[in-house]
Amino acid sequence: MSDSARSAAADPSGPVPTGPRPRRRVSRGNVMLYGTLIVIAVYYLLPLYVMVVTSLKGMPEIRVGNIFAPPVEVTFEPWVKAWGEACTGLNCDGLSRGFWNSVSILVPSVVLSIAVSSISGYALTAWRFRGSETFFTILIFGAFIPYQVMLYPLVILLRELGLYGSLWGLVLVHTIFGMPILTLLFRNYFATVPKELIKAARVDGAEFWTIFLKILAPMSLPIFVVAVILQVTGIWNDFLFGVVFTRPETYPMTVQLNNIVNSVQGVKEYNVNMAATILTGLVPLTVYFVSGKLFVRGIAAGAVKG
Amino acid sequence: MDETGRPRRPLRNLSAKLAMLPMILTALVVFVGGTLWTVVHSFTDSKLLPRLDWAGLEQYDRLWSSDRWLVSIENLVIYGVLSLVFSFLIGFVLAALLDQKIRFEDTFRTIFLYPFALSFIVTGLVWQWLLNPDFGIQSVLRDWGWDVTVDPLYDPGIVIYGVLVAGLWQGTGFVMCLMLAGLRGIDEDIWKAARVDGIPKWKTYLFVVLPMMRPVMVTALVIVTAGIVKLYDLIVAQTGGGPGIASEVPAKYVYDFMFRAQNLGQGFAASTMMLVTVAIILIPWAYLEFGGKRR
Lengths: 306, 295
Prior knowledge:
Chain A has 306 residues and is mainly alpha-helical. Chain A has helices at residues 2-10, 28-55, 59-64, 77-84, 96-126, 132-142, 147-160, 167-191, 195-203, 208-216, 221-237, 240-245, 253-261, 270-291, 293-301. The mean pLDDT of chain B is 88.
């Protein structure tokens, strides 16, 4: 039904549609289609819903009620407690510390990794030299090496540099492991820019940095946004590097969240746990819902062959 | 623009070469160097500190006779195979459903993909709560009068399936997105031709469109598989490897031996085995993709 409508629209030589616009009818097929989609959508939304309602209930209500029931008495106390009072070991200053740690890891990591990778991608497209593609191929294959293989050498490397356990050590690690995907992303994007543009600039005497900063970067803002989205969600969600390369005082939010929820001491406060879980998921979720299609473009970037 | 044809002048384009230095260092020092370092040290008897005392295959002998490692491998195989099968199956079906020129396509896509934006830690903790035997789904079903047992996280026999459910919830949206991109890349004329020939829609999907999506499928397969081998955070958050050692996975084995048990040699050997696993998947793919034709 809609197939023929589309093919007629796609084919300009086809007959021009006349008469009233065909009305959408509710057919059995459509009911099935939307029914299935809605059921699946409910399944996907359920965990988020349960997280939210659990975090708004008091513990007595959780003990007697069922997890899908909306809160009878809404309380924000679990949120306050998760943010400011939840305990990991002896520290009882809540997730807020992890949040600020994550922020101070995130900002320099995103800036540095995008700066380094975009310049590499630019050099790879416009200033190739003998062997540059080989290094790039190694870099891409490196993206598939399990991180576990490179963890200990990196620990040694950072220790030698005096960065092990510090914030900058972790920033460096994120820059390194963000490089394959980001370089690929930028290289593929810059490859679509007409070569004549860069050639002309070089003829006019513009050199490496001028071309990048004055010409290429300003016209490539969308891809920088995609890279920021990719890195913000990726780095915020990281757990392994956080746990290996930082100390308890500088643990990122994911690590601290896990320590709070999975700590064996004390009575389990499921409402506080769920509030803490949402708080940790809030940053990437916000980025996701705000960015929409750009997020999709970011994750699909890895799938586009270079 | 390509300099390869001209005589070599090392100082030519110095700033370009300097700008590429971080990438070159990452590729050579971290990726190649780090990997070789770990592989070499997996043949030593390093304990607390890495040492170059040759021990042959001793670490590997110990690894493959460790129950915990065998359980880890078994879990990874079960999780890996099932998560590939189901994420591709569900991902493709969802993509096909979204491709029916439906209304609210963006809304549905947003809903199916949002778990992918969440970390494995968040995913694991939510599903730990949902599968909590006292308050979670099991308790709700029992309140409704169904005497069922939905308690995977505390049952060593099926714990990995509990993790699988969470992993699928998080990851199928990603596969769906890739598949949808693949479907959108199919020529309209294919659909027209199939309609003219009177081939039912599902048959067109299965026998015409699916084979045409081979490139997307292969890339998705490689990316998803590489992700599966790294499975770690989800286990840590959802089960902690328990009950007992029932949900251990290789990546956790590596971390625990390297950074907790101070038994570096075991960690190196185990991580080398992970590398071998990835290589077994990656090398045939690279051969197929890049071997035949010049890039």
